[in-house]
Structures are given as C-alpha cells and as structure tokens.
Amino acid sequence: MIRGDQPTGELERLRRVYAAYDADGRRRAAWKDSAASRYERTRKWEVVAGLLGGFARVPPGAWVVDLGAGDQPDSVRIAEVQPDLRGIVAIDILHERIAVADHKMPLLRPLVADGARLPLADASTGLVYQSTMLSSVLRNDLRKAIFAEIRRILRPGGIFISYDTRVANPFNRNTRPLCLSEQRAAFPGWKQTGRSLTGIPQIQRLLAPWAPALCRVVESVPALRSHRLFAAVKPGP
Fold first, then answer.
1. What is the pTM of this model?
2. What CATH number does the domain containing 21 carry?
3. Is the pLDDT of residue 129 over 90?
4. Do 176 and 168 form a contact (C-beta atoms < 8 A)?
C-alpha cells in the first residue's frame, strides 16, 4: 500500500527517473548481471556476514525489512547468514518495480509502501537493510523522515545496515551520496560502525571479466572506494 499523504511530486519524480533508466541501453548494460556486479555483491555480503557475526546479531525469529528492494531484492542473502529469520519484508514505493521481482523465496513478503511512512508497528523489526535507496532520495526532509521510521520500527537491540554511495556520481544527477556524518547524526547514542568498500564501478567493470584479482587491488585503495557499509544498533537489551 501507499498512504494517501505520500508526496506525489516525489513519487512521480522517481517514476520518471526509473523509466529513463529502463530506456537507457547504456545503463542497462552497465547494471546487468556481470562479473563485476557478482564480485561487488560477494564482497558486500562478506562484510555484512562479518558484521552480523561479530558487531551485532539479529535476534532469532526476527523480521527483516528491506527498504527500496526494487526488482532484485538482494536481502535474501541475509537468510544465508542467519537462517532463523521469521521473514523479509521487501518494500518499494514503486509498484511496477516490486511487482516484477522474483519473490519465490518463501521468506519474502513484497510490500508497496513509502519508506518515510511505513505501515509497520513500533519496535516490530529486528533488522532494517537498505542498499543504494537513500542516495536516490534527494530531499533532506524525506531522508530524515526515513531515518525516523527506521528508528521507530527497530526493536531494542535491532540493527540498521546501509550500503550506499559515499561519493558523487558525475554521470547521474538523480542520486546524492549518503554521508557518514549524516548517518551518524541520524542515530545518536547507538553503537555504530562503518567502512568504505567497493572499487569504483567503472573500473571494476573493465577488470572483473579478465582479472578479478585486480578488483581487490583497486578496492584496497581507500580513494578508489565508491561505497560505504554502515551499521547502527538500537540501544536496549
């Protein structure tokens, strides 16, 4: 569902942006499943697995919420790390994106909703995950509203995990980086951690098909890392 007070202008902006993405053959080719995208996902989930194994653990039987799941909800990988989940609510504001996603996994529950006004109960969720969704939200007030909803729906001891761009993309004016200071300020008093990762995608796409080992070399250079993984744990037992 989408609540009636969803800002229509933002919803229509997102529809126009993703329609343009779909019509752009160059972008489709860059974002398709490839050696580079598989390497990126593998490295990201190695780090997430390490977080959930040491920094914080999702309580058994907890719900997971994937914000901005889109048509390829990679949050299903969380179940590989923690198989005792109750379910994963895959949320997207665009019905047309989530409707075509592959939701064959029994744990997945697709839901069309606005991340700034989630139809979920207080303290009902063990983990909230977002991957490159917040960087698509350009307005500060909407970002703050989304952060407020994350704080509201997480139970004490629950964890927020974010993977998003940390530097501006000069080829895409429809995104804005998610700064570390912005994330830290959104969760005051929470245990936090973060690290940069993922080599610049344009470089990785060139290297991954024939020299995947060089992708790790690129990623080892901090200045060449384009994304950040951030995690915060809600205070409580």
1. 0.90
2. 3.40.50.150
3. yes
4. yes
